[in-house]
């Protein structure tokens, strides 16, 4: 996860994926079970995740509700695609053979 965002951003995403859409206050409650962050720190992180298109933000009354744009499994698929694309850019055809071999081994195991 931290290849795509910071450690605290990754923690916030994990909490929202597990708990569903939530306010900053609710996310802070879960985070501060094991850490000691300020409300403003978590608000900044969540707004940064909106700018990075990981979350969307909707006004509800006096608060904002933050919702993930994609599920965790969708993110994993997206991230894997980006990693493969970067490998292909860096190594060209060499990586394709390796990826094909890995896929063949996986299909034999089923």
Plain-language structure description:
- The chain is mainly alpha-helical and about 110 residues long.
- It is built from five helices and two strands.
- It has helices spanning about 5-20, 25-30, 40-50, 70-90, 95-110, and strands spanning about 55-60, 65-70.
- A two-stranded antiparallel ribbon has the order 1-2.
- The radius of gyration is 18 Å and the shape is elongated.
Key descriptive features of the protein:
single chain; 110 residues; mainly alpha; Arc Repressor Mutant, subunit A; 2 domains; 5 helices
Supply the CATH superfamily name of the largest domain. Winged helix-like DNA-binding domain superfamily/Winged helix DNA-binding domain
Average of the residue pLDDT scores? 88
Q: SSE string, helix = H, strand = E?
A: HHHEEHH
Number of domains: 2
Number of strands: 2
Computed over alpha carbons, the radius of gyration is 18 Å
**Count of helical regions:** 5
Which second-level CATH architecture of the largest domain applies? Orthogonal Bundle
Main sheet? Answer: 2 strands, antiparallel
Alpha-beta classification:
mainly alpha
Cα-to-Cα separation, first versus last residue: 28 Å
**Major sheet: order of its strands?**
1-2
Shape: elongated
- The residue ranges in which pLDDT falls below 50 over 5 or more consecutive positions are none
Q: Could you please say which CATH topology of the largest domain applies here? A: Arc Repressor Mutant, subunit A
Residue share in helices?
55-70%
Percent strand: 5-15%
CATH class type of the largest domain: Mainly Alpha
């Amino acid at each position: 996860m931290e290849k795509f965002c910071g450690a605290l951003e990754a923690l916030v995403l994990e909490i929202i994926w597990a708990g569903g859409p939530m306010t900053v206050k609710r996310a802070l409650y879960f985070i501060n079970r094991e850490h000691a962050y300020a409300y403003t720190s978590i608000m900044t992180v969540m707004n940064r995740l909106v700018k990075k298109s990981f979350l969307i933000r909707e006004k509800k009354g006096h608060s904002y509700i933050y919702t993930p744009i994609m599920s965790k499994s969708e993110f994993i698929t997206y991230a894997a695609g980006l990693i493969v694309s970067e490998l292909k850019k860096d190594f060209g055809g060499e990586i394709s053979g390796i990826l094909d071999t890995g896929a063949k081994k996986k299909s034999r195991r089923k």
